[in-house]
Amino acid sequence: MAVRWQAQGQPAVTDEWLSQAANSRHPPEERPSVRAHRLTGDLRDTRETANMSVVEDFDYWRGKPDLAVAVAAIKALTAVIKRSKATTMMGLEIELKRASEELKEREKSSISLAAGCELFLRFVTRTSALEHEDINAGKERLIERGEQFSEISIKARQTISKVGADFVRDGCTILTHGVSRVVVSLLKLAASQGKHFSVICPEGRPDGKGIQTARELTAVGIPVTLILDTGVAYVMERVDMVLCGAEGVVESGGIINNLGTYQIAVVARAFNKPVYVAAESYKFARLYPLDQRDLPYDPKPVTFAEPLPPNMKVDNPSRDYTPPSCLTLLFTDLGVLTPSAVSDELIQLYL
Amino acid sequence: MDGGSRRGSRQGMDPIVRRVGFVTPGTEPEIPLQQVVLNGPGQSSPAPVIIPPRPIIASSTLSQEINSKTTAALKTVTVDALKNANIEASRVSEDLTLSSSFGGSDRSGGEAVSEVPASLSTVTTMVRQVSIASASVPAGGFAGPSVGLTPAPIAASVSEKAAIGGVKEKPKTTRAERKAIQEAQRAAKAAAQGGGKAPSVKGSVAGGGDEKKGGGKPAEPKTPKATPRREGSLAGSEKKPPVPAVRMQFDDKDRVAKATKKNIVEQTETKNRVELFRHLPQYVHGSQLPSAEAKFFRVQEPGHPHPAVYQVGLRYLTGDIVGANARCVAMLLAFAEMIRDYSTPPQKTLVRDLTAKINSHVQFLTTCRPHAVSMGNAIKLLKTRILKLPGHFTEAEAKKSLIEDIDKFIQEKIVFADKVIVDHAVEKIREGDVVLTHGHSHVVEKILEAAHARGKNFRVVVVDSRPRLEGKALLRRLLQKGLKCTYTHVNGLCYIMQEVDRVFLGAATVLANGVVVSRAGSAATAMVAHAYSVPVLICCETYKFHERVQLDSICSNELGNPEALVDVPGRKELTELQGWDKNDNLQLLNLTYDAMPADYVAMIITELGLIPPTSVPVILREYRKESNALELL
């Protein structure tokens, strides 16, 4: 079912992270930037006072350009643990649950945030089962883990880049969509391996995320063609593969990503082109949408060049759901998975 | 045996591709010309092989061709046995098969002496089987071979056999004659193989039906088949690979005859059965009930089921209890009752005796109605629990723990699971949705009621199908609760599907490849829904999951009462089907279940969460892990 790239025999996402955390605890030569980043993080944590709310914390971390939403959420939750005055693990758990609810309330439609919170809570439950008698030891373990999370997330990104870069062949044309840190890092790695390929980026109306990706890729010398979102089907015949990120990977093996992913996937399927998704395993969410209406509805404002007549409805949902039947493979830090293997991982994690 | 003629001709046509489809019985294929008829009593089974001449009695020494000799000897036995008119045809044919497998073994054994020990052990196993078989043969049915000729292990078992039957001196043969016999056999075999009979390994690979079909075949034509079969039995006795229990194939007369002997409930088979579904039991409905009822009070008889179980069986029979969950719960409660009343007979152990008792009860229930996967899983669990009972438990403790286990199973796996499923599923019904369901699934009913109780505003389409019209019961209950409903038949599916948002279906079982086995008509519903891109949600507790893989609804299904198709309610003038069983050219097929491929299923709602149909094996794996862990405790 799943093509395991890492044959470590660690089934659950959490275990994977745990081992990664253990490895990174004594790194041979730490990437200086990361260490610096962690240091600043630590500094901040010591500075902060008890009256910081979890949402403010989250907003602070969210401001960092390199941090994913889930990482920011987990950072914020770690801060909650630090501030916590709970005397039992149970109490701590309840406190965390409340905090994560607050966070989810803050960004209601964010799948990634919800997945991150849920995953961390799951880890807390598992830890409390482990360290039910000693609250301090439990707290310490949780804090340590939360601290290392951003690092783990960066590591996951590297793993995915390594796994996914093998799929980029010399001379191929790749269609991307939106902006994704993982996809950009994957393509950069492939380019650094000396592979010559070109990328087609749809513009990504209205916030121009495609342009952002194109800019980043051009900076490292990858030839990029920018097209309009409407031109996807036109270019599809000369595309070799579609590669995009994901905001969340759901239980069916489908993905939730920014608007337009579904239509690209549908066009790609019609042309029999492979659709690859690069996503960290912490984006696996316990969600099972059946159609687009099952997603949290979160319209974004959109501007038009021409003034619109009044009474005209404008709808711009921010994300869509791509069913697993439209996807070929998922590049994750657990390895290269088929969409059906996602549910396998999720079941093992949450069962 | 009246089945003899059909069986015989089936054997004749066996190597040819089996005809499928709705073929009228009675048009039996012609028996190949080259076949020399070996007449058993009342059996006209063809044997396309020359039977070697009867060996002439003479003395001889034990030679290296032990193998061929035993073959010859046994052949004599069976030929003799055949001449004995008072043996049942079935037994004879069984013995013949065994001897034919000897014929297979001497192909190698006769040529290479080094192989003799290996094939000897085979021979021994086979002989053991023979002796088992012959144990039930009426006295005088067997003429034992000369004991002195057979090697020790065989001698032992054969002598037992000889003791059972009236001992008749085995004719001794000279070396030359034995050689002649051997040559003849080889020639015969070559002829058999050359005659377009490809060695069918099918017998052991395809499992079930074929292997058993072999049971009734007469001698030599089976030689190519016999070899793999023998190896299979050998491997089985030595390694015991985890071969799943073979399901009863009801076109195998032999087995059916054996099985029905033990039955308490008398079953009469219907005459006009659809060819494609002959392997499934099809009884004349209504014929079993009176006899079963009459036997209800003979509780004192040994081997009679416990009254509670008997009652459940009768209720299965009458169709009083339907639905996988209901049947499973009823069965488990009856078993709990039985265990409560159970006391270990003297000189027996609880573990073994109770297991045997449960087996016989299960068999009884199966004769009332073929059991559902849900019941199978529950039985399996109960049996493992019995086996894992700690040795130091007293009888009372053991009984108590078993009854608790049963109760826990019902509570956890069914009652609580249903609650969780309802909670999950209600989330999937949105405001203003149109929800379609087929038949009457109790879980779906609970879901719809719960969604209504939570103030959701939605409409239900109940699709029903003849002949059971189970949807009516669902419709009545939903209307009582004040839900908005539309009622239609399967005929109206395509029309109504256009306005549907979700399809909720129950399931009898979900198989490892994601195939959902459900009430007949559900697959059609799912297919139409898929065509209209309407998601199909299956609501199923995980205890109904099964490791088996099934691709169609033919190989495993249940035949309902064909009589149910005859009358159309409200249309008295439609009498075309009356007296259908008198017409040989007409068969009625009333299937109970059908299988929907995983492609049509968007989601399976279980108590463990929402899973795609591709994840069924994951659940099965995890569930097994869990139960293994429990067993270790």
Automatic annotation (TrEMBL), chain A:
Magnesium listed as a keyword: no
TM annotation in the entry: none
InterPro entries: eIF2B_alpha/beta/delta (IPR051501), elF-2B_alpha_N (IPR042528), IF-2B-related (IPR000649), IF_2B-like_C (IPR042529), NagB/RpiA_transferase-like (IPR037171)
GO cellular component: cytosol; eukaryotic translation initiation factor 2B complex
GO molecular function: translation initiation factor activity
Main location, first listed in the record: cytoplasm
Regions annotated as coiled coil: none
Compositional bias ranges of the Basic and acidic residues kind: 26-40
Top-level taxon of the source organism: Eukaryota
Protein location: Cytoplasm, Cytosol
Region (Disordered): 1-40
Keywords from the UniProt entry: Cytoplasm, Initiation factor, Protein biosynthesis
Annotated GO biological process: translational initiation
Family classification: Belongs to the eIF-2B alpha/beta/delta subunits family.
Subunit structure and binding partners: Component of the translation initiation factor 2B (eIF2B) complex which is a heterodecamer of two sets of five different subunits: alpha, beta, gamma, delta and epsilon. Subunits alpha, beta and delta comprise a regulatory subcomplex and subunits epsilon and gamma comprise a catalytic subcomplex. Within the complex, the hexameric regulatory complex resides at the center, with the two heterodimeric catalytic subcomplexes bound on opposite sides.
Name by which UniProt lists this protein: Translation initiation factor eIF2B subunit alpha
Organism: Klebsormidium nitens (Green alga)
TrEMBL record, chain B:
Coiled coil region boundaries: none
GO annotation, biological process: cytoplasmic translational initiation
Biased composition (Basic and acidic residues): 167-181, 209-241
Ranges of compositional bias, category Low complexity: 182-192
Main location: cytoplasm
Subcellular location: Cytoplasm, Cytosol
Presence of the UniProt keyword Protein biosynthesis in the record: yes
The entry's keywords: Cytoplasm, Initiation factor, Protein biosynthesis
Residues covered by region (Disordered): 164-249
Family, similarity comment: Belongs to the eIF-2B alpha/beta/delta subunits family.
Protein name as it appears in the record: Translation initiation factor eIF2B subunit delta
